[in-house]
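Narrative summary of target 7.
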Amino acid sequence: MPPVDDRSRLQSLAGYLRSNLRGQDHVLDRAAAIFHRGELGLARRDRPRGAFLAVGPTGTGKTELVLLCARHLFGDAAIRRFDLSEFQRPDAVERLLGADADDPGALGRLIGEGRPLVLLFDELEKAHPKVFDLFIQLLDPGHITLTTGRRIELQDCYLAFTSNLGAAEAARMARSSFSSIEQAVLRRLGESLRPEFLARIPEKFVFAPLPAAVQREIGELHVGREVVRLRSHGFDLQVTSQALEHLLRHGFDARLGARPLRQTVERELQDLVAHSLFSTGHGGGRVGLDSTGTRLVLEPT
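Modeled conformation, tokenized:
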């Protein structure tokens, strides 16, 4: 049984996810339950503590879900992230397990022992086919032997995979019910990935496209986070409703999801602070619009 403080973090995980991830409420309790089972010792001890696949359109929060869970429960140091677009060549398995007896490979360098780790494999569909043989071993029986001869056990690890498979189907079905979109995405998943791999993934989360109203909520969340972050560096900003509308209008992208929105918020607010520092010597104030209503300005308060 985990200590009381750890149990408290576990119990608050679903609420924490709801406070920080918008538009995907249907997956949050299921995601939290994976970590509940793993940390309470209820999952099998001859397998990873938990495993899941998050699939759907880009920019909808798949990677963010994994990062939020890991940070809330274990801290940033527990995250091991692999961009599978970098493992497309035939030597991908060697890069992961090691090329010779002196090379522990990417997995051997990143995986420690004795404490929980979250292994995040992004863009699953881009991995070389041989990598899926490796994933099958990681999932079941839950261990792998490096080229160095060292055996890595996964009993202290969570395995999270993300993929954009099904994004095209979701875009074409934008006016359909989410249950219909979910079925289409899962069907595409079954057509594209090996059944013996999918059979070892106990949870598959289909992420919903983000409508304009949800993108607005996400934009407000990003603005609030960036204001808090800049304040921690000594730059106090008050963002007006007109400035918020400007950021939402310029950052919204129905095709790419929330990622461009976050980038727009961060870039424009940071640029305002930098310009103010150069021109006035301070970087705080009221964020509004200029007389043309087309550009953000920072006015001293």
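The domain at 212-299 is CATH 1.10.8.60 (Helicase, Ruva Protein; domain 3).
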